[in-house]
Amino acid sequence: MATPRAFGYVRLARANPTEVERMRLRVANHCVREGLALELVFADNGVSDTALVRPAWTALLDVLHQAEAPVVVLPTARVGCGAHR
User: Fold this and answer.
1) What global pTM score does this model have?
2) Enclosing domain of residue 17
3) Cα–Cα distance measured from residue 8 to residue 76, given in angstroms and rounded to the nearest whole number
4) Which distant-in-sequence residues (6+ apart) come within 8 Å of 79 by Cβ?
5) d(CA 44, CA 20)
6) How far apart are CA 72 and CA 76, in angstroms?
């Protein structure tokens, strides 16, 4: 039986390439643990949670319409929210 394919998605409100890479790694590690073949992790970096346009989310949905695959969704990091107030 073929290894199930997976796609990931991460979003950060404040652009932070280092944090995006950390979250991508978490998704990849999750896929390894669960025996999933991670195809790609889509990332909206610097996109507010209130934004109606999320390019990576839209791209993920487009891919899912074309391929049957489990989706790994990693919650948005909340590290530091309100910490600078």
Assistant:
1) 0.81
2) 5-73
3) 12
4) 19
5) 9
6) 12
Side chain identity at residue 57, one-letter code: W
* Nearest Cα to Cα of residue 27 among 15, 39, 44, 13: 39
Domain count, the chain: 1
Mean pLDDT in consecutive groups of 10 residues from the start of the chain, 85 residues: 88 94 92 91 94 94 81 59 40
For residues 47 and 11, is the Cβ–Cβ distance under 8 A?
Answer: yes
Q: Would you say residue 22 lies in a domain? A: yes
Task: Enter the tokens of residue 57.
Answer: 């989310």
Structure tokens at 72: 């790994």
- Other CB atoms closer than 10 Å to residue 26's CB: what's the count? 16
Q: Which residues pair with 11 in a beta bridge?
A: 44
Q: Within 10 Å of residue 10's Cβ, how many Cβ atoms? A: 24
